[in-house]
């Protein structure tokens, strides 16, 4: 069900379905983060969108766990299947990043930027056409 006046509604879940969420609001274009933390957490790079926390409803948090990778920087994952779902930091408490691959298609999103390119592994070549926000 769409929230009246929001104009946007997206849904997603972890691999096992234990954590489901709905976003009743706009999502940021996808950003690829190649930092060493995101690379280790995801096994490649974090492709993420983001939403205002007020627009995000997580239906089940029973298996949602948070890993604090650095002071005030957290990765949210399912303790059952291991899916990386969310990223948040204390500097921006009203907004969470959402793993783009956990969204139910069609997402309508585009990848528009890449960050921390200098920390990408040696096997990876960044796709052309995305904006390099910083290396």
Walk me through the structure.
This protein has one helix at 36-42, and strands at residues 10-13, 20-23, 30-33, 46-52, 56-58, 64-70, 73-78, 84-89, 95-99, 111-115, 131-134. The protein is mainly beta. It has a single domain, classed as Metal Binding Protein, Guanine Nucleotide Exchange Factor, Chain A, CATH 2.170.150. Strands 6-7-8-9-4-3-10-11 form an eight-stranded mixed beta sheet. Strands 1-2-5 form a three-stranded antiparallel beta sheet, with no helix packed on it. β7 and β8 (84-89) form a beta hairpin. The model is unreliable at 1-6 (pLDDT under 50).
Q: What are the salient characteristics of this protein?
A:
single chain; 135 residues; mainly beta; Metal Binding Protein, Guanine Nucleotide Exchange Factor, Chain A; eight-stranded mixed β-sheet; 11 strands; 41% strand; globular; disordered N terminus
Radius of gyration, in angstroms, nearest whole number:
15 Å
- Give the overall form: globular
In the CATH hierarchy, what is the architecture at level 2? Beta Complex
Largest sheet: 8 strands, mixed
Classified by CATH, the class is Mainly Beta
Number of domains: 1
What is the first-to-last residue Cα distance?
40 Å
């Amino acid at each position: 069900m769409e929230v009246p006046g929001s104009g946007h509604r997206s849904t997603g879940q972890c691999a096992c379905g234990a954590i489901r969420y709905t976003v009743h609001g706009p999502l940021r274009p996808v950003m690829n983060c190649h930092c060493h933390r995101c690379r280790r957490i995801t096994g490649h790079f974090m492709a993420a969108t983001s939403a205002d926390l007020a627009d995000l409803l997580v239906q089940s948090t029973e298996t949602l766990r948070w890993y604090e990778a650095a002071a005030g920087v957290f990765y949210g994952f399912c303790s059952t299947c291991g899916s990386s779902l969310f990223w948040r930091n204390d500097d921006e408490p009203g907004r969470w990043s959402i793993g783009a691959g956990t969204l139910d298609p069609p997402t309508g999103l585009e990848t528009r930027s890449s960050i921390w390119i200098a920390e990408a592994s040696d096997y990876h070549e960044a796709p052309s056409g995305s904006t390099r926000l910083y290396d």
